[in-house]
Batch of 2 targets.
Target 1
Amino acid sequence: MNTTPTEAKAPPYNRSRQAREAETLLDRIEDDFPDNPEAMRYFYALFRRVYCQGEPVKHQGTLVGTTCIHAPEELIYAFGATPVRLCNGSYHYDQIGADFMPAKSCPLVKATLGSLHAKAAVPNTAALDLIVNPTTCDQKTKASAMMEAMGYQVHDLELPPAKESEEARLYWQRAVRRLALRLRELTGRKLTRKNLRQAMARTARAQAAFRTLHQLRKTAPALFLGKDAFLVTNAYFFDDLDRWTNAVEKLNTELLQRQQAGFQAAQKRAPRILFTGSPPIFPNLKLPLLIEEAGGVVVADETCSANRMLYDMTAVDEWLLNDMVDGLADRYLKPCTCPIFTRNDDRQRRLLQLAADFNVDGVVYQAFAGCQVYEMEYRSIADILAAQGIPMLYVETDYSPDDMGQLSTRIEAFLESIKTRKRNK
Amino acid sequence: MSYFAGIDIGSTAIKAAVVDQAGQLIGTRIAPTGSSFHRNAMETFEALLAQHGIIRDEVKFIIATGYGRKLFKEADDSISEITANAIGASEAGRVFGGVRTIINIGGQDSKAIQIDANGNVNNFAMNDKCAAGTGRFLDVAARNLEIDLEELGDYHFGGDGAPLTINSTCAVFAESEIIGLLANGHGKEEIVAGIHYSIARRTVRLAKRVGIEDRVYFDGGPALNKGLVAALQDELGRELVIPEQPQTTTAFGAAVLARSQYLSE
Amino acid sequence: MTSIRDAINGIDLRRFRFWLQLFFFVLLVYGGYLAINLGQYLPTFSCGFNNEGRGGVCYLLPLQHQLAMSWGTLFGWAGLMVLQGFLFFSLWFFVLNKGWCGYVCPLGTIQDWITGLRQRLGVRYSRYTEGQFRRLSLIKYLLLALMFLIPLGIGGALLPHDMGTPFCDICPGRMIIPMFTGDFSQLTIDFSTKTTMVMTALGMLVTGLFLAGAFFKKRFFCFFCPMSALHYLLSKPALLKLKKDGNKCTRCGDCYRVCDMEIREIADDVKEPRIMQDDCILCLKCVAHCPEQGALKAAFAGITVFESTERGFIKRMTKGHIDEHNTH
Amino acid sequence: MTRTPLPLLMLLLCTSPDSFAAPPLWWSETMPHAEHGSSRHSHGGPVEIRRGIYHKNLWLRNGEGPADAQYLDSAVAGKVLLKDVKGAVKELAGGNIHGSYGVNFAMPDEGYYNLYLVNESVTDGMRQFNIAKSEVLKHSCREGHDHVKPLMTPRRLDTIPLEIVRERMPAENFHTSLGFGDTITFLLLYQGAPLPGAEITLHTAHGWRNSTKTDAGGRASFMLIRDYYPPWHEFERRHRQDYVVNAVHVVQQAGTTGEDSYTATRYLATLNGSYYPSSRDYRSYAYGLLVGIFALTATGVGVYLYRRRRQRRFHEVRFDDKH
């Protein structure tokens, strides 16, 4: 598998399948909805450049790919390297991945590996110097070997399967310290207090911006739509950190103005949806788009392509390397609500709290066919939500567009039932 | 006199229904979807009106439902077949004393819906993009066994001995399995029964996901199949409520909704 | 009103605490020179051996004194006096609850200064492993028990009289706090009798331990402090309270990692709203380091005085990112 | 102070005119017989506490110094006066306490109580005044310390012809106890006025004595010597020793009291007190520091090793192979 199908007289990128896939989606996102925020133009343009024109991702220093939110990017920045999140949402790469992966495996992993396999992938991964692969779910764990087989440098970031115990915490802290060593070898630079502190300052600023955006989504009726929010957080995967932060801050100011102006991006009656489960990753925004095309609005989410990736912040008591690195380690383990961990009561509590804070009418639970952990947690989540009288729609799907019609039926039915529910209230 | 219509554009058949001001069902009509279903839908609709001597203008409000609903531009509004089905069922179910659970087996999907007393959807489940356990599955089987869809019911009871178990849930694999069984000299009767039971099992599993409450209303084309009904009742362990025109429940529901929407505006 | 609240919640707790602690330190260690006397029932280590400087006396000194009275007197007329003393002590305590440890206690302040020194030297701090922690946190109750039993034993003439105030003998405060007023006379071993010899030697050992321990471990001594144990027994009805809203908690563990006393419950317990544990010194660092709106709060007589807020957290952290010298 | 060498001193004493006069009377707070068990020790000597009120016992003794003075079994003629903290003077009746003559009085208030015995007699034309004074401190820390500061200053009773007053040492408070090496100063008052040039003598517990004459201001100072040498393990920090000061003043003036007449009056005043080993005798900074430093280094090393162990991977978990 060292020669790839796309290498054979590959068409100019912008004519390629994945480019068209992205293009159609972006058209839908931009044109099907009347009042997109001005500040979103930056993101639309960014995605068009990167996904449709195939513009390579800008980066200083070595480029380090990460395959999960557990990779502490502050460390990577501190070593003067640039992290890029490799998780991929393209059906096209999903198909390529299917060539050498079991058909029943998770489309996200398939697409990710597929994109790594197809060298001309987006975001441009040809220049990867190292892939940090946290051992989260089985499929990602097993991916390490495959990625190595493709000729990539891979570092297994060992993540404990449980996060409650103190042992797990220490184990993880060790793993993170080991990553720091590996990065030192890779970059030949030294980790200093100043570097790390600056790196952490940058991400903290980005997170602060995200949190503001997050809080703005509490306003009802919604100030802007979930598809845009997902686009913003998806840009975080590969965009330049500071540029991204500035763009988000611009968006925030605009949304604040909208708030003061009493602007409504959705009707009063529009069901407010909390999105959870498998992450919508560009260009696979199928489900959020269907929801909002059907008149719902995604006001909050609990997915690793948005909230889970950016929400929780690092606290440091003493600004010494030891404390900072351990602090980072904690931030990437303790609050994480990923279902791979043995217990999921944190996730349940988080969902309930989000539902309460954003006065959510219903929850849409996306599970990628082949992502067992989400499929298995679905019941427990359904139960606690039912106990709170919050309706939930469980959707098992993948990247293929063929079930769109069927999905739209279900989503519309779901939204209709919510509407009647609200009317009867 | 003003009327209200509902048009259900399904994957295999187009169903149209008309109700009068009182919400009484005037009539229904069914036609195959075919390739250009927009034209067929229009024709079916007009044929229905003609049949009952209703002028187009008398139809005040039309609601489309089913997969084709978005593309049926003549409709004043569209609604998902699940909601429509729920309304239709709860309306039609009144004569049976009200229903709370609906099982619908359509051309390419099967649904289980749980509704409250007013016909609002509480919860529903749907097969995940796979024709297994749907009407299409029956078509395939019938074709392999070289019998008409309508005859399947009679075959179901014709057999002596236990029904075979059809293991493969996928319509495509089932095809080859059936051929294999025929080759092994099994009677069509037991095979048909087997098929019915395999569908029934899947459907019941679906129904259990939404929770089964008192009367279970069974509609959709396959509801005409006595054998399947028997199998389902077996698996469910309770009586099923079946309307005399199972296919048109959804269209009827759409029509009822059209009426109420029109009156509320 | 809200702006004031925001200002409070956005406060730089580190600096605020430093100055407040300094104030109380001066008050209790040098207050005597300013003719300040808060009496002898203070629920904090305002050492009585600091003759000239003290602005009040640590209750443990008179308590042990009183308990050492002959049983006849103690269980007779003097019993009331002891109770009265305890009452005053409790009244003092109820105001600040364990805030006495986190903000007032001179010995605690000294430890924080030593910690500051360590930070400047860039030496990392130690943490106990879970097992050690569980075992160690029992010691203070043992000390508390001894602190009651030994004087009683003396009162009953079961123990030699020169064991007078057993805890003070081994309390590092007795040796260290007077030094701040230039009185080094406590820094001795008393050869007058065998008991005093042993006790004072023990005291010196503990002082040495204290200094070394406090350097490597935040609030080293507070794990073993019998005063803290005594506090905890009274802490339920106190006015100042630490509250937690489990639903808002994301269990990110930020509070736990900044906690000087390594209290895990603060992060992991999402059921109990009254989250204060026996080791807690109510320094409120956990509240300051909690990014979740209203997940942790300090309430005085039911009125929220300091609450964890997203904005406050970000403000404090950004500050942490910026300024180079973070030791206060 | 100036210390006269002992031989010379003996000489002085021998040549003194009235060296063979009757031995002085003085109060002692030491029990006649040790076997009576020790009462509670408080600031300012042994006390008894009855229903929360401090009570003081003082026994009258007669003899030069603590070393060779007897207790009396019966009262002596004369008045026993007590001046309490408030300044009120009342007469006390002595009696038999633990087998010897003494007085017992309550001390409800904080501060100094002065007890006097004035005994007057005339023997072959010489009028003899024996004045025994004792200054007793009542203090309990429970009462606090601020309000009693003014009570430090010595108090006197001017109706007493010849009175010895112990002047306070610099920075003396209710907790101060005299110790070896401390210098104590006495003020001698005759009819309430300082009396210069009078002979004044200090007797310590073990028979050491030292005489001098009061200076122009009627003052005389002595340094308490260290005369307590037990084996180290028997050393008692609260080892209380009595001292007695007596002063003699003779007035060559004839007169009569009642029926008998005299040619001269001899005043003999005594004041008792107690002192303890000084803290310098039993405290050691050197050892203290040593132990402290040892502990410092020990823990330092301990922590270092502990961290070393922590750095070696997975050493938190220890298995017990014994079972």
Target 2
Amino acid sequence: MLKAKVILVALGAALAVPQALAGASPEEDRKESVEYFKQMFPDVPFEEFVNGQYALNEDRRKQWESMQDFPPYEFAVAEGQELFETPFANGKTYASCFENGGIGIRQNYPYFDTEKNEVITLELAINRCREANGEEPLKWKKGAIASISAYMASTSQGKPINIKVPDDPEALAAYQDGKKFYYSRRGQLNFSCASCHVQNPGKWIRADFLSPALGQPANFPVHRAKWGELGTLHRRFAGCNNNVRAEPLPAQSEEYRNLEYFLTYMSNGLPVVGPATRP
Amino acid sequence: MASSIRVRAVENNGVTSLKALVRHPMDSGFVKDSAGNVIPAHFIKVLTISHNGKNVFVANWGPAVSKDPFLECRFKGAKKGDELTISWIDNEGASDSTTATIA
Amino acid sequence: MNKPLLAIGISLALSVPLAAQGGPKEDFQEVYAKAQSTHQDAGNFQWTITSDRLKAAKSAADSGDHEKAMAMAKEALKLAEESVAQRKKQKEAWRQVAIGN
Amino acid sequence: MIDQRRRGFLKGVLGAGVAGFALGSGIVPLRVEAATAPDASDWPQKAFRTPGVDETISELYGMEATESDQITMDLPTIAQNGAVVPVTVETALPNVTSIALLVAKNPNALAAYFDIPDGTLPFVSNRLKMAETTDVVAVVISDGKAYKATQNVKVTVGGCGG
């Protein structure tokens, strides 16, 4: 059914990446990017892109479906809910820091804070909420923060991702910085994120099956079989950078937040399906 | 404290399908931690599923069963509303148990 | 790749008249410091392998293996320079492949 | 904030006054009700410590297993990760009393061994660890005789996951 069409992929790779339009707006970028991936995988429905390699490879999809039948992150999500609802020492809870009590809002993250002029990711907002209530911040990449973020994502299941880039020079600059990071080759292997996830999705890189960029942030935080636990998106950024022998940047650094801003914007309209399992 | 066992048991036309996920590291004893010393073997040895005091399924597990192990089994003779008891014991003598109602 | 570097390292050390002001240790400090500063210059484009070589150079130097220390420092410098070149090239190169510039 | 595991550990200690079990690491909340803890005395210790498929089968059942096409195994062709390989075994063979899962090239072949009491269907699904590309063997005892099915699974170690 969703067999990766080798011919098509070859055609996709040969597809001349649309010539850079001078100063295209984020929305134009997004539309062009969706079109690019639709041409590359014509028989993959738009919503299915959130399932990455599992939308392109039958053998992988079957393994994924048996994992999702009773996913190993269920304990972490239950723990995340317990942590989310446990009041801080001052009696308040996370709900007080978020609109709608933090329920069903994952699809709006990350957003650009026009006062502070910075990208606010969900994990950053979680720790800022803790600090505002006199609590110690959590570690960024795994553990409690991943469980809480996974619980909050689970309350947004199916809601379309809705990232906004306001017509504000700082917001556009953050978006552009994230885009530049995404397309810049780095590390001794000299790959960019796009080398794998834009130019070669649907192909094998050794024994790994490359997923398309479209839809990637929709399934975070993710429980990877390799980690044996949940991990946040910035843990994945650092891991990928390390794989190409580029020095990873600190989690929740401005560069990684701008990167998340750009990448998530590209998935606007796709449903939140986090948390999810991955290899 | 949430139990370490999550269960879904559903009966239709006489056959109960039970799925369980157990929270356990299932360390094999063959893995080293980042400091280079071996993580000792720590895994569930026996897991039983019983209905009306009788075992309907017994799993003898070794260290090659994945972390946070998953199990599915099917049996006859139980109906909606019946209660099942799922218990496990590991190689360190720790154990846990929970009950589930068949939907 | 290491062998030629080692060879160059050795021949260089031999050709330098012994009376030269810095002995092999002196040259090492110089190369090591240059490698470090070039590595910093790479900014967000630092390579993990450069920091590995810098560590290897330092530990070789600490344990008195000057030959290895020099080879590692030289390799670190070469890698650091390549990462700086990558940073500069990518300043504009990314636009050619980006969807929608 | 009390670390989740420590809280579980503390509660375990208070509750475990009954029996002086060696307390495991605090990771797993210890709720020791000695009464319902399953009896692990007939856990096949030696079988779980035997390398090699045939040696394990003879250790476990004291007989050889013959290949049978009545056993269906649902396994991936290429495992996405050797740490979590989903496997499902089902058979049409009659009066099944036991199913075993073996991973040939694991340090010890036996991964899991299930008692199938009367009234329980000859079916089981599990997630196993596989050290490398190798055969997964399912052994079924039907009418007191041992049958087996074999299927190879490719496993690669490491990788970025894609």
